[in-house]
Design goal:
This protein is an alpha/beta fold. The protein is built from 14 helices and 24 strands. The chain binds uridine-diphosphate-N-acetylglucosamine.
Length: about 425
C-alpha cells in the first residue's frame, strides 16, 4: 500500500501542463464500442480508472493499446455483451458502458453498480431512459439484463436532474437508434461536449451538446476517428488550490479558461490573482488567503462538486469563515474529519460545511477515502507545518496522473513511499 509523505510550507513555482480529463476520456472510451475500425484517442490520462475501462473493452473483445498519452481502440472484434462483476466494481462510471454495448450488440448484461464513497449514486435515470428507448431491462440478483434485439428507438427523454452519466449514456445509445432522441434537462458539462465532438467526428448527428436540450438523430453506423481529450478542469482547480495554500505563483498550460468560469471567481474571492488566456493560466496567491463567499456546488456551469474538497482545504487556512453547500452528492464531506486531525476547524451538518480558517494546519497521519478528498489532503499537507502522511493513495491515482511528480517538479516536498 503506497503512502504520500508531504512536508508542507514549500513555495511552488514554474510551469506545468494539465492532463487530459478523466471524465471525458471514460465516456469516449465507452463510445468507441459503437465504431468499427481503429480510434486514436490523444491526451488520454494514464489513470487507474482509465485502465479499468480498458480492461472492460478488452474483456468485450476490443483491442486497446497505449503509447504515452495516446490510446488506440479497435472494437471490430467485439464478441461479448456482458461485464463481469469484478470489472464493474472497479469504477462507478462503468455504467456508461450500458448504452454503448446495448446499441452495438442488442444486449447488455452487467452487475448493478452499488453505492460508493461519495453517495448512493443510483442509476434510475439511465434505466428509465433506455426503457423509454425500447430496451427491456430486468434487474435480478444484482444484475441488469438488457435486451433490444431490434435496436433502440429514438424518443423524447426528460431527465429529472441534469445527470452527467445519464446524459452521456443516452447520447451514446441514441446515436445508432432508429429515429430522433431529444434529451431535455441534459447535463451541460464540457465533458458532454467533448463526447459529442468525438461521436460527431465518427458520423453521429448530435446537436445542442452543452445546452439544456440535446437532439440526436440516429444513423446506421459510425466510423472510427482520432480525437484529443479536453484538459481536466478539476486537476487544474486542484493545482490552483496547491499554489493558493503555499502562497505561490505557478503557470498552468493546456487549460480551457471558459471551463473554469465558476472556479476562478472563488479563488479571486480568496485574494488570488488569475490571468487566463490562450490556454495558459497564470496563478498568483496572496500573502494571506481570505475567506470565500458561500460556495454552492451545482451542475455546470455552476461550481463543480469535484472541486469542493480541494477548495475546502484552501478555506481551512483562509482568514475568516467560509460556508460550503454540497448540492450534488450526499456524502461528500468525508475528508473534513481528516482535515480536523490536521488542526482545521470545520463543522458539517447535512449538506453544509462551515470552515473557520485557522492560522495554520499541522502535519498528521491521514487517510483518503475518495478521489477528491485525497486531493484535499494533498492540498492541506502542502500548507501544513511539518510532515503529513497520506494513506489511501489509490483513490488519488484514480484521477490524478502522477500528482506527486507534478508537484515535486513545481518545488513541493512530496514523495510516494
Ligand atoms: C459525473 C462525474 C463525477 C462528478 C459528477 C457530477 C464522471 C465519470 N464522473 O458523475 O466526477 O462528480 O458527474 O458532476 O463523469 N443520479 C440519480 N440517478 C441517476 C443518475 C444520477 O439520482 O440515474 C444522481 C446522483 O446520485 C447525484 C446526481 O444525480 O446525486 C448527479 O450525478 P451524475 O451527474 O449522474 O454524476 P456521475 O455521472 O455519476
Amino acid at each position: 500500500m503506497s503512502k504520500l509523505l508531504v512536508t508542507g510550507r514549500k513555495k511552488l513555482g514554474g510551469e506545468t501542463y494539465v492532463q487530459g480529463a478523466k471524465n471525458s476520456a471514460l465516456p469516449v472510451l465507452a463510445a468507441t464500442i459503437l465504431t468499427k475500425g481503429e480510434n486514436v484517442i490523444y491526451n488520454c490520462p494514464d489513470l487507474s480508472d482509465i485502465e479499468a475501462s480498458a480492461r472492460i473493452l478488452r474483456y468485450l473483445g476490443c483491442k486497446v493499446s497505449r503509447s504515452g498519452s495516446t490510446v488506440l481502440v479497435n472494437c471490430d472484434t467485439i464478441d461479448k455483451y456482458d461485464i463481469p462483476d469484478e470489472l464493474m466494481r472497479k469504477t462507478r462510471s462503468s455504467i456508461i458502458f450500458l448504452g454503448a454495448i446495448l446499441a452495438r450488440t442488442g444486449r447488455a448484461k452487467m452487475s448493478f453498480p452499488g453505492g460508493c464513497e461519495i453517495g448512493l449514486r443510483p442509476i434510475d435515470m439511465h434505466l428509465k431512459a433506455l426503457r423509454e428507448m425500447g430496451a427491456d431491462i430486468r434487474e435480478k440478483h444484482g444484475y441488469l439484463d438488457c435486451t433490444a434485439p431490434k435496436g433502440l428507438k429514438g424518443n423524447k427523454i426528460s431527465l429529472s436532474f441534469p445527470s452527467v452519466g445519464a446524459t452521456e449514456d443516452i447520447m451514446i445509445a441514441a446515436c445508432l437508434a432508429d429515429g430522433t432522441t431529444t434529451i431535455t434537462n441534459a447535463a451541460r458539462e464540457p465533458e458532454i461536449c467533448d463526447l459529442a465532438d468525438f461521436l460527431n467526428k465518427c458520423g453521429a448527428k448530435i446537436y445542442g451538446a452543452g445546452e439544456g436540450v440535446v437532439v440526436i438523430e440516429g444513423v446506421k453506423s459510425l466510423s472510427p476517428t482520432s480525437h484529443s481529450i479536453i484538459p481536466d478542469r478539476i486537476v487544474c482547480a486542484t493545482l490552483m488550490a496547491c499554489a493558493a495554500v503555499t502562497g505561490s505563483k505557478i503557470i498552468l498550460d493546456g487549460v480551457i479558461c471558459s471551463h473554469l468560469a465558476s472556479v476562478i471567481p472563488v479563488f479571486e474571492d480568496a485574494g488570488c490573482k488569475i490571468r487566463c488566456c490562450n490556454g495558459t493560466l497564470e496563478f498568483t496567491a496572496p500573502e494571506k488567503l481570505k475567506a470565500m463567499k458561500t460556495v454552492r456546488t451545482m451542475p455546470y456551469p455552476g461550481f463543480p462538486t469535484d472541486a469542493q474538497a480541494p477548495l475546502l482545504a484552501v478555506s481551512c487556512i483562509a482568514d475568516g469563515t467560509t460556508v460550503f453547500v454540497e448540492n450534488i452528492f450526499e456524502n461528500r464531506y468525508r475528508h473534513t474529519g481528516e482535515l480536523i486531525r490536521m488542526g482545521a476547524n470545520i463543522k458539517t451538518v447535512g449538506k453544509v460545511a462551515v470552515v473557520e480558517g485557522v492560522k495554520s494546519l499541522y502535519g498528521a497521519p491521514v487517510e483518503a477515502t475518495d478521489l477528491r478528498g485525497a486531493a484535499a489532503l494533498v492540498v492541506a499537507g502542502l500548507s501544513a507545518e511539518s510532515q503529513t502522511e497520506i494513506s489511501g493513495v489509490r483513490y488519488l491515482e484514480r484521477g490524478y496522473e502522477n500528482l506527486e511528480l507534478t508537484l515535486s517538479a513545481l518545488g513541493a516536498d512530496i514523495k510516494k513511499i
